[in-house]
Specification:
Shape: elongated
Number of domains: 2
CATH topology of the largest domain: Nucleotidyltransferase, domain 5
Strand content: 15-25%
Helix content: 25-40%
Distance between the termini: 50 Å
CATH architecture of the largest domain: 2-Layer Sandwich
Strand order of the largest sheet: 3-2-1-4-5
Order of helices and strands: EEEHEHEHEEEEHHHH
Number of helices: 7
CATH class of the largest domain: Alpha Beta
Radius of gyration: 17 Å
Largest sheet: 5 strands, mixed
Structural class: alpha/beta
Number of strands: 9
């Protein structure tokens, strides 16, 4: 019986979920710094302990460099301490899974967004998106650039709609290749701000 702890800290809203054999036992949405506390609460609410976990699914970005690193560090610490296998799941893929048929758009700062083009993650200015009229866009990037994207023909759900959050339940449901945590690599798409400033 699989018990998966899933979490994603790459965007402004960190999510976590506890999923047993495809059934969601609980979910949380908070901040990246609370991911381990949220995990502990999820287990406690379900009457379980960390020893009951069988796998971890973690968001690999793209998103905030710092946020992504927090999630991967938490996954590494738990995997080593509990001897668990880990699967990395794209934050864009998880966001898209929560709104089938929609285009995931994550705020990349620097007047850019992370999205999928031809199924591949890219970073580009939102004005460069080639949208079919009526394309549904979801994510914090879609919210930030709503007027621009709607001007390009996009349809964007209401600001409070949960489809704009990469919910961790989808990380657990999408995860398929569990293995050593060292194999899980972040998806950054560009150099961190600190490295850019030094250059």
């Amino acid at each position: 019986m699989a018990l998966v702890l899933a979490f994603d800290t790459a965007t402004s809203v960190a999510t976590s979920a506890l999923v047993r054999d495809g059934n969601v036992l609980g979910e949380r949405a908070s901040q990246a710094v609370r991911v381990l506390e949220d995990a502990d609460e999820l287990l406690g609410d379900a009457g379980l302990t960390p020893a009951n976990l069988t796998e971890i699914a973690v968001g690999t970005g793209p998103g905030s460099f710092t946020g992504t690193r927090i999630g991967l560090a938490a996954a590494r610490g738990l995997a080593v301490a509990l001897d668990l296998s880990v699967a990395g799941v794209s934050t864009l893929d998880a966001l898209a899974a929560g709104a089938p048929g929609a285009l995931p758009v994550i705020d990349a700062r620097r007047r850019e967004v992370f999205t999928l083009v031809g199924g591949e993650p890219v970073c580009l200015p939102p004005a460069s998106l080639d949208l079919e009229p009526g394309t549904v866009c979801v994510g914090d990037g879609a919210l930030r650039y709503r007027p621009l994207l709607e001007g390009l023909g996009a349809e964007i759900p209401d600001d409070g709609d949960r489809v704009h959050i990469p919910r961790a339940r989808y990380h657990a449901l999408l995860a398929s290749h569990y293995g050593p945590v060292e194999r899980v690599k972040p998806v950054y798409l560009r150099v961190p701000d600190a490295e850019r400033m030094l250059a």
